[in-house]
Amino acid sequence: MTKSFYFIREFGGLLNGNRAAKVAGAILSIFAFIILIYALLLPKNQPLQVSSGLEKFPQDHKTLAQIEPGLSSTGIDELYLSLRQLNSVDNLILILSEEVKQGILNVPPEMSEESDFFLIKTGNREQLLDELKTQPRIEMVTTISGQIQRQGSESFSLWLKIIILAIGVAFAGLAFYLLRSVTEDVLEGWEGELQIIKYSGLSRLSVKFPLAMLGTLFGLLGSVLSVVALFVLSLLADNGVWLIQSLPGLPTNTSLLLVTVWSLLLGLVLGFLASLSSLRVVDLKWDSKVNG
Amino acid sequence: MGKIVQIAELSVYGDEDEVLLEDLSFTIDRGDIAHLAGFSSVQYETLFDVLTGDLAPDSGQVVLCDRNIVRLSRKNRKKMLRDEVSFLPGNFIPPREKTVLQSLKFKLALTGSNGDIQERTTEVLELTGLTNTSNSLPVEAGEIEQVKTGLAISIVTKPELLVCHKPFAGLNSKGIEEVVDVLKAINEKMGVTILLLSDGISENLDGVSVIESDLDTRVVS
After folding, report:
1. Which of B78, B91, B92 sits opposite A201 (nearest CB)?
2. Which of A29, A129, B61, B122 meets the CB 3.0–4.6 Å disulfide criterion with B8?
3. What ipTM does the predicted assembly reach?
4. Half-sphere exposure of A243 (CA within 13 A, CB side)
5. B217 part of a folded domain
């Protein structure tokens, strides 16, 4: 294992100029590939925060605030008055837990159906979110985006899906080619080192393993970038309070975790396979007779 | 003085029973520089592969440093060869992007050699006459420097035995003389026994003994 780390460091030292550009290209291609896969796989029409019962409420009441469970009716009244005094609150509607249970309002899974809620209308969502932080009786807030309120819309057409898939596959192919090419480049310049390794009694696996690890590492980097991008983009897109609530198509933490794990696995496997496919060069050079 | 190399009745056959080596026997004393002359290229290559453990002989015994490498497991054979024997393959290509000194350190890192690296590399560079070019790339140097670099890399681990396959290929007589001088210095100052699997050198080199084997050289020409 010590030798593997040593070789990884050695290979890393060789990644300059053209080779570094290829590595960067490969990482970006993996990143683009996974982002496109997100675009295809992430569900677009989730009954996320509020769904079937929404039409029963004014459409401009887009902020759902969960009240501390078990709060007395007097406490709720006081909270109602307190919220009405906030500058950012234009109007608010109280929805009791019984109504939620009757299906008047579907709440996100992370919110408790045992709680009462306020649906709030505001002209300044940012300010509202800040002001709600000063209300200890409000336990959780979610913002209902316009996209989510539009039920049964926003699905990619089949042709668009095919085009996205084709571009994604092209990016995967490019990443594969670049990683393979950079591994072959490194090995091309390593003919002398391979001779020394061979006649030092080490096996060819001692070279192959760190090369495969390096390719896998590049794949992982690409996928980590894509996960970060997913988080940032979704945060910017919906401007939500909690990250999980602002990810369209990711209704629960479980989904978020799954998408993250799948993304990382996708990058790992792509990087591993690309470097694996180039390792035959090790065999060729290892077995070649240059004895003249 | 004991025998460091003992080859007895070594036979290697190629595809379709082509005879590569047959009943080859010879020995080398510890501390010698020995030159195995008169073989064909294929025979040199075959013997080199047998000694490195890459090729298993069909019959016979190969005793290096008091151990029969034919009977050792692959793992033990590799370890034994790594610790006690160094090999300089024919047409050795030095690392392209490493200086001579970096190449020596690379070999030491691979073999996990302990001790004072600075002291060891300095000694080897002096012995091989590469002190002044230790920080330059050997691939940019001449053929003699490249052979010397190969020798330096081979002996930096202080082996007991050094096996060189065609170390003089491509060198003129002056170059051969220079390399032989380096080999003698390695032999005298480090006590390394050297086996030269090579033709193209005079059989009357001072200090280099010619191995008499009973190999039937007619079998492969």
Report:
1. B78
2. B61
3. 0.87
4. 11
5. no
